[in-house]
Amino acid sequence: MRKACKLRRYVQLRTDRQGTSGEGTVVYYKRFLHCCPVDTPRLIDLEATACKLAISGHGTLIIVSVYLASSKELLRSDLESLLALGEHVILFGDFNSKNAEWNCVSTNTNARILADLRDTLEFDVIAPLTPTLFPDKDRNRPDILDIALMRNVNLKLGCRDAAASFLRSLPSLHEIRAYL
């Protein structure tokens, strides 16, 4: 991964994209957390890095950073494979899935696929209220590409708001690229 950031007191797990120089997916977690890497299954279009977080008295949470190139189609089999990593799973990142339902400017094909799979595969879509993509061309409007899918992660309403707020607070790679 080109110019991967090193953050003090954080551990970095990363999966470099095959066949290209640089790029891929990454997860950072605080050193004191009981976290360990998880082997990700073979995926067709999604790229992913996963870790397992042990939470005292609450079991294990699988956290997966994902990326879907805008030229790729969101495949049910990829989502099923990642959601099968554990009972409690959070997938987050750039799904290149825009849906007006989660505050995007428009709805694209991948978002329609995701919306159709939501009930069947039993996950929730959590989206920030503000854009995570700020195009460098004036004719394009800011939009949301970074979302989270949560399966069997029961958060109180205030926590859901906090999760969406947390997503908003993370610097999107779309924003970071401008500084590299």
TrEMBL record:
Transmembrane segments: none
InterPro entries found in the cross-reference section: Endo/exonu/phosph_ase_sf, Endo/exonuclease/phosphatase
GO molecular function: RNA-directed DNA polymerase activity
Superkingdom per UniProt: Eukaryota
Keywords for this protein: Nucleotidyltransferase, RNA-directed DNA polymerase, Transferase
A Pfam entry, by short name: Exo_endo_phos_2
Residues in Endonuclease/exonuclease/phosphatase domain copies: 62-157
UniProt name for this protein: RNA-directed DNA polymerase from mobile element jockey
Species whose genome carries this gene: Eumeta variegata (Bagworm moth)
Lineage: Eukaryota, Metazoa, Ecdysozoa, Arthropoda, Hexapoda
